[in-house]
Amino acid sequence: MILIIDDDPAIRTSLTYLLRHHGLEPVAVGSPDEALPYFRSGTPRLTLMDMNFTRSTSGHEGLHLLRQAHIFMPSLPVILITAWGSIDLAVEGMRNGAFDFVTKPWDARLLLQRIDTALSLSADARDATPGETRQFDSAGIIGRSPEMRELLATVERVAPSDAPVLILGENGTGKELIARAIHLNSRRAAAPFVEVNLGGIPASLFESEMFGHVKGAFTGAVASRKGRFETADGGTIFLDEIGDLDPASQVKMLRVLQQHTFQPLGDSRTRSADFREVSATNADLTARVADRSFREDLYYRINLITLRLPPLRERREDIPLLVRHFLKEGSRTHNIPAPEISSEAMTLLSRLPYPGNIRQLKNIVERAMLISGGGIIGADLFRQDAEAAATAGPDCAPVMEDTPATLADVEREAIRRALRQHNGNLSATALSLGITRQALYRKLEKFNLNR
Ligand SMILES: Nc1ncnc2c1ncn2[C@@H]1O[C@H](COP(=O)(O)OP(=O)(O)OP(=O)(O)O)[C@@H](O)[C@H]1O
Ligand SMILES: [Mg+2]
């Protein structure tokens, strides 16, 4: 199958006609979003790709799509279609691994010739390289729902490449776990995995933290210290809460990610490090790009591949699996025998709303396990959680299906309720919701709540 990607319907029609007439099997789509599933499934033998999509005239989008295609299908031949006069873009595309390019309007015979050449060369290359198979290590990620299966399949495909990955998802959905799985299944697995919480680094400390400093670089710098990028040399750097990066730090971050070089404070020499970046955020980055609080170029740089973690309430079939997993894990860490759980208790747990997602479920299960003291865990142990959810709103949990309330309403109520329960104590509230204090602060602000 030959994949044609062009936002101009007339071009799609004429290319489809031309290729079909030549005995090929064309499929035409109009946007990068529609093209990605084809790359993910690995079906095209070649792609004809327009570089100039309407959303951005710079060609940024076309180049981005080209890189994405090659992450999923490293040896896929790509022939670029560029507007007449945009040779620079074509050259940039070739530098990024395109096989060839044609400019509009094209000579049909010449185009078909190039397609044939590309197809025969890539067939030769395929025959020459024996397929390597490696066992995928799921890093303890539990989940058999269709959403999780698809996500893990994508993780498996992108992990071995050096592609920057952006992980999106609510608090406690497992973003960090996925980042670790990517590292574990990459060629960097034996090197460090360095986690940085960017939300916790003030702008004034960004450079010394990330780039390091030498002794005496500033008051208090009593010894030299390696920065995070240098520590991650050879491995993976996990840029957590990247949506919270302030504008000045965004510029610095972009530069390091592009050049892989940096200068420790007080040092005149430039250092370099070989790292792969995986980022995560629970912020709506596209909205931040739109209102210009997050740089578009940095956004494109970090999210060659986007992974979206579904909230737990959207994949409830995973809850029993997770409960059993946490019971087993808890029995090991607390050194107590793994308790049984009654079926009513399991049913109840399967219906809670979980604004704090998997982390919250884990806390609830662990707490019940400790209270039950090794006996059978019954539904009564979760009555409080169910009540909290139920009083959070008439349409909320325990039965969440088909509720007219928005998720935001449910979340707001759950937080309000938890705050009241803990007399406004933020640490206790955050703990009971399974989110960090920082996340709680953000949510209070977002929902306009106070203690
Ligand atoms: N699919 C899963 N299987 C088993 N455990 C999981 C899974 N997802 C998350 N967990 C566990 O849930 C907890 C929260 O996960 P993690 O820290 O990765 O979430 P997060 O999305 O990074 O949260 P935050 O946004 O608050 O930083 C961890 O203890 C993690 O081990
Ligand atoms: Mg996290």
Beta-strand fraction estimate? 5-15%
Instruction: Give the number of domains.
Output: 3
Rg value: 26 Å
Q: What is the annotated CATH architecture of the largest domain?
A: 3-Layer(aba) Sandwich
Which fold name fills CATH's third level, the topology of the largest domain? Rossmann fold
Major sheet = 5 strands, parallel
Tell me the number of helical segments per DSSP (H or I, 4 or more residues long). Answer: 19
Specify the structural class.
alpha/beta
Helix content: 40-55%
The number of distinct β-strands equals 14
| Overall average residue pLDDT | 87
CATH superfamily of the largest domain: P-loop containing nucleotide triphosphate hydrolases
Low-confidence stretches: 394-404
The largest beta-sheet arranges its strands as 2-1-3-4-5
Shape: globular
Broad CATH class of the largest domain: Alpha Beta
Bound molecules: adenosine-5'-triphosphate, magnesium ion
How far the N terminus sits from the C terminus, by CA atoms, comes to 59 Å
